[in-house]
Amino acid sequence: MARTYDSNNIFARILRGEIPCKKVMETEHALAFHDINPQAPTHILVIPKGAYVDMDDFTARATEAEIAGLFRAVGEVARQAGAAEPGYRILSNCGPDANQEVPHLHIHVFAGRHLGRMLNPA
């Protein structure tokens, strides 16, 4: 079931300049900034500038340019953070079962230490 985009979510407000962020980079299609509650030494969020609820919504409705722009931004952020060689993890929660907290697509870039297993065994 598709969820409705909330134009007052925190990331929409950051994109409109209503809430400040510690910007890492900005492109035509994406904004990257430091997470306010980092879960690793490097924890950067990369969000599309368009109003997309989650990865499902984004991959269904975004233009080819938006999709390429977002994923190129993720790679550039990782390289700028010096994470490409030792390694990094990207994560995007999609929907309630994945515990998505903000209804605007966001990709976490984690790095700076060994990150352990992807998931704990069920």
For the structure shown, list the relevant keywords.
Histidine_triad_HIT, alpha+beta, HIT family, subunit A, about 120 residues, about 20% strand, 3 helices
Structural commentary:
It is a single chain. This protein has 122 residues and is an alpha+beta fold. It has a single domain, classed as HIT family, subunit A (2-Layer Sandwich), CATH 3.30.428. The protein contains 3 helices and 5 strands. It has a 5-stranded antiparallel β-sheet with strand order 1-2-3-5-4, covered by helices on one side. A hairpin with a 3-residue loop joins strand 1 and strand 2. The model has no long low-confidence stretch (mean pLDDT 95). Keywords: Hydrolase. This is Diadenosine tetraphosphate (Ap4A) HIT family hydrolase. InterPro entries: Histidine_triad_CS (IPR019808), Histidine_triad_HIT (IPR001310), HIT-like (IPR011146), HIT-like_sf (IPR036265). Residues 10-120 form the HIT domain. GO terms for molecular function: hydrolase activity.
